[in-house]
Amino acid sequence: MTDAILYRLEPTDLAGHRCTVTLTIPEPDPAGQRVSLPAWIPGSYMIRDFARQIERIEARSGGRRVVLDKLDKHTWQAAPCRGPLQITYVVYAWDLSVRAAHLDETHGFFNGTSVFLRVAGQEDKPCLLELVPPRRQDWKVYTSLPEAPGHPARAPRHGFGMYQAPDYDALVDHPIEMGTPQVASFEAHGARHELVFTGNVPNLDLERLSDDIRKICEKQIAFFEPRTRRAPFLDSTDRYVFMTMVTGDGYGGLEHRASTALMTSRADLPVHGRPEQSDGYRNFLGLVSHEYFHTWNVKRIKPAAFAPYDLERENHTRLLWLFEGFTSYYDDLFVLRAGVITRQDYLRTLAKTISAVHSAPGRFKQSVAESSFDAWTRYYRQDENSPNAIVSYYTKGSLVALGLDLLLRQESRGRHSLDDVMRLLWTRYGRNFYRGAPEGVPEDAMPGLIREATGIDVGEFLRRYVYGREDVPLEALLARQGYRLTWKTPSPLPSLGVKTARQGEEVRLATVYEHGAAHRAGLSAHDVLVAIDGVRVQHGNLDKLLARYRPGDVVQVHAFRRDELRCFTLKLEAPAETECVITPASEPFPAR
Question: Cβ(9)–Cβ(110) under 8 Å?
């Protein structure tokens, strides 16, 4: 690999959260080599401008300084030079999230899009990555990036040294965790999986985690490859790595081709000697299942707009309802199919999703196809009015998947389901994506693909519930399967028509729902409630105050808007039936 692009990453200042990266380009462009850092990371559809964290950067060739001009917010161009070009830069890494880089005295976590410059015109060349240890000698390395075979500095398993990637896209799609985490491993259909937990987690039950997650992984591998049961990442690496950063209240995940970065709350993880299954642990298993399903759906089955990614600007697609919504449908369903949660737990989780979608008026203003397209500017940039203006392609997309699954089963009398659609997408677009045949799903292809997989025309369904703004008719679809969907009020108290948030001991209006009581009275998001009918409002007593009234009563509400005290006359409204309940039938939810 004499023509390989060489990267060297060294954690140089743990207390200052800085790492130093040295990029060596054996054959730079004779006209002047351009390099750039991605503006976003796949899976998180928002421009993040990672280059803003580069503190110092310089270039040399043959021991001499080379002029390096900054062309825009994330692009530099080196002056023409002979021989290898070496660019050294310092990255500030203090973003404790799944999206970027974080470094301190306890660990280092690095997404490639945050630390590795792209060499323009040489993206297809192989890459070598040398990981250099900090002064601490007890750290180990956890990544799905393969060690460089045959290289004299090849890294040992979990060690510092040389790793390799076939191209730049692969280099930035294998995040790196280094430190002293708690680790477990298991095999699922012959494929090695590693669980890596970073953070202070006393009495963590790694055995239970391994057993539960193994069952989920095995179910998903067998789902896409029922004959061979071969995990897709084995074409490029010998392992899959779940990297979990544990905090007091974190939650989230970001998928990669052979690993995932997760964040979870300490309280959501299982404890030795406590066999009970908490809601938080079920949520964590759903998150694990979601990100693992992405190994197929979005990392290999991709929208055409992502084949390949353009990491310098937004990549718009109207298909995120398929890639995120369908994944959100299958995540908890596979936890159920794996036997890790009960049918009752699954139905309760499904009901919460339905309740969440139906509580937001924005679903009547934006379709999930529009939500997908606007992810960059609206879904990932939400504000106090977002519930009134947008719909989530995750949650409503999962209801579209549920509705399609039920419809396909019913129309085919049980011969076909959404499973057939996913397997067709896998064989047509996913299985060979990294084998030299990269092709993405065209924007308008889904009606034809679903008909090809099942023989059923769902064009009208997609027109109304994906490209239109109607609610998926789940009550009728579930009824035909023997399930009863009903609605109830979550509280008997009269309603202000708002969502509140705690601000110290004060109550702040986080969202004022359109056409609700507070909206009609003139209250706005960010107003701080002071009093209702002269009685002070504080965190913890709002429900007690409202319990003294009935729907239709008129009250005087005092609130601060910024530093100005205002008074509003508000007519309390009846509590809405916003809580969904699904009554199970005698047969289990579709588990085929």
Answer: yes
